[in-house]
## 1
Amino acid sequence: MAESRSSSPRSSSTHDGQGRPLVAVTGLGIVTSLGQGAAANWEALTAGRSGIRAIRRFPTEGLRTRIAGTVDFLDTDPLVAPLLSERFATVAAEEAVAQSGIGASFPGALFVAVPPVEMEWPQREALAAAAGSNDGAITYSALQRAAASRRFDGWHDVFIFGTVADRLADRFATKGSPISLSTACSSGATAIQLGVEAIRRGEMDAALCIGTDGSVNPESLIRFSLLSALSTQNDPPEAASKPFSKNRDGFVMGEGAAALVLESAESARARGATILGYVLGCGEKGDGFHRTRSSPDGAPVIAAMRAALDDAGLGPEAIDHVNAHGTSTPENDKMEALGCSAVFGERVARLPISSNKSMIGHTLTAAGAIEAVVSLLTIRHGRIPPTINYAVPDPALMLDVVDKTRDVRVSRVLSNSFGFGGQNTCLVLGDEP
């Protein structure tokens, strides 16, 4: 059983201890390399099954990393990140909205985390050719010529930042201007935070929050490889991602999406909705240390975790489980362990911690939302999915890593999301106020 926790701050059934509207979750949707839907993903996660496999959708000869957690059961043609991100987001949001029973015309705003949008090399080359550029260079005048000749083939629409959000807003009839954001690997959690804050301010009674990423393509793979961020342990693929293990050597790219329907508890109860859990706290902390590395002292990570706890009005002892960022890179796992030790003290050695990236890879801008969904499923089912491949523990990291599915009562989870460039967002999720 979980250790004793401090009680919640004084709150009503509809407002928290600070007098703000409680934010309830009434719908969940998810798609990852493990499958489509919450049921399929939960079954695979708790079985310790990996969705990481050899890449088949494009040639990988000559690449150091040839594996990823790809979503191969949905149409991935054309292989363009914005279109794949939109496709995954639509599937996840359809499930979440249907479960919530909130109606076909969504009564709130859309907050969606998407990958940084930029034209990819196949489209750049085709555009240069269409513009008549013999050397393949794409200049402003070349773009003007291509636009005048109307030979964009719709790419100008696909590669505009915000287009994915616009299309999703049309699909789900959300209200107001859709918010599109990209804060690296914390993006999915940030989308949830924005929805929570909007409901707390009384601006809306509901928010559709989505994190999505379809970036497993040659260009992204090469870029991360050049940063020496990816695992090169290609065989067997399912053993490559090994968070908190001594022999970890990098993360594995993944893709997918998750969606959450957030509502004020008062609104959800008034319409008789089933409440799946609550977002009790959100914390964020920027870190200007480096464009890709985080501060080695872990100070911003520690601050983000503490801010989430403070926002929830809870002490560290109230947390039953940490859903780790746990990327499987040497530096990130060390920094997260350091941060958890600072926040939880000696209890960190007895506090269950797990990383689902061991099974689905790092889904980048979708990760924070996917892990929030997994955290809520953990709470509802009383089961913590394992961190697979934890065969060689790192003795320098004094953590209680869950290496086999653990049946234990979980009421409150701290879900961590730490992004390149030091963009850190943490969420506290619970089964009750």
Note: The first helix runs from residue 38 to 46.
## 2
Amino acid sequence: MVNDRPEWTSEPDLASRRNGGGVVWANDELFAERENLIKPERPEFQPWSFGHKGQIYDGWETRRRREDGADQAVVRLGLPGTITGVVVDTAFFTGNYPPFASVEAVAVDGYPSPAELAELDWDTVVPRSPLKGDAENFFEAVFTKRYTHARLTIYPDGGVARFRVHGKPVADPSLLDLGSLDLAALENGARVVGCSNMFYSSPSNLIAPGFAAVMGEGWETARRRDDGNDWVSVELAGEGVPRLAELDTTHFKGNAPGWASLSGSADGREWFEVLPKTRLQPDTRHRFLVPDARAISFVRLDVYPDGGMARLRLFGGLTDQGRETLEKRYRG
């Protein structure tokens, strides 16, 4: 299968409801609710599904404007971070999609109201650009600044199915206990840097916030027909000393790995054993103490021979170097 999507779409969706995002305001949502914009699943369409306001769309749709202006929606990023690209998906909107859109972003502390957000100076991430109907519209963005909110503007009105904000999460060190945290958590700044197979789902799901609600919210490989095994490597939030590992196969019943092991590395090239090859049970949260732990910056999960895993957690404390890395990332 050929994948012609931009490479940056493999980065996490910072705005996704699954990652804690929320649509805090929209000036209009008469035909379809703003909350649909950040649903993690693909848009769907059911013909002849009419409500009292017309065809029901799986997206955000505003009324037809009869005056000058534009419509807007403001999204609080569930994972604040740097933005590498955005997707304005107009799936199933054909005669009612907006011809143009722009995207702005802002960084703010705390939990401001929509009125307070409106008073801030926003940075332009995507200038006013043309859109295609019933299509994913990709816009690359190259920014090193950490953002907490994104604002989608459509000109002059219409419908957008999904709004994806891809990027790299950047945690606020002041809100973390740096001596005891999940070193492999996406929300703390960890990221997947290598993977043997992602046939069914993204390996980034392994380190996403919260528990997996269904099998599709984990990582699952194709069935192997050789003598090898599948693996994922993760760059940690910063150099740290792991004390407890969690290998969660929840929801994976007939397709969980039979065994798994963990390796650590200081540089992502030379690896040593962190957790020996250990038998796993299906649909189970496994927790293992890490014996004789030492500082690592990367962890590699090997599953034998293949299968699915819901979550990988690696609890421990950051070293002085790890703390410096986390704080430097936050400062930009």
Note: The chain has a mean pLDDT of 94.
## 3
Amino acid sequence: MGPATASLEDSTVVVVDDDDQVRQALSSLFRSLGSDVVTLASAAELQQYVFPDRTCCVILDVRLRGASGLDAQALMVARGNPVPVIFITGHGDIPMTVTAMKAGAEHFLAKPFREQELLDAVHAALTKDAARRARDRQAEGVRVRYESLTPREREVMAKVSAGWLNKQIADQLGISEITVKIHRAQVMRKMEADSLAMLVVQAQQLGICPIQI
């Protein structure tokens, strides 16, 4: 699976609908395509569900018994759950669509919808989630590498990424330029940065260098 696409065979599709026939139909569809499928009947069940550590999306009916799909989505947002949501409804209207989209829903499909429409929506949602997970893994790698730096190397990295010259860093830290160069080389090696530009991007990700606008 590349960074720009996602495979149903490597993902989990969570279907939340209080209609048993709909749950069974969607489960059969996505299982036939190789996806792992979880079916839930209410917003409460979704709130209790623990998402697996893999690419996921949620197909969520707007009108559920008890709390609505919109309520469930709002709780996901409040909890910082970034898994993409696709709303389906037989009673869709413009205000409901606007509310869902403002809250971050990926798609809003009115029943009856074509099977291909849903497949396209799910593929787009899974691709977005896969890309987000790839970014998270990359950011975690940067953080782990940064933690391997010594305190002095972290000081040098911050100043180098902020555009300081070796002489300026040496004067500020009270060390020789040669020592600065040694620390700088160590920083580049440990951070696996092939260029100063890459190091600056890493520093921005870590929050130790302001993002240039």
Note: The chain has nine helices and five strands.
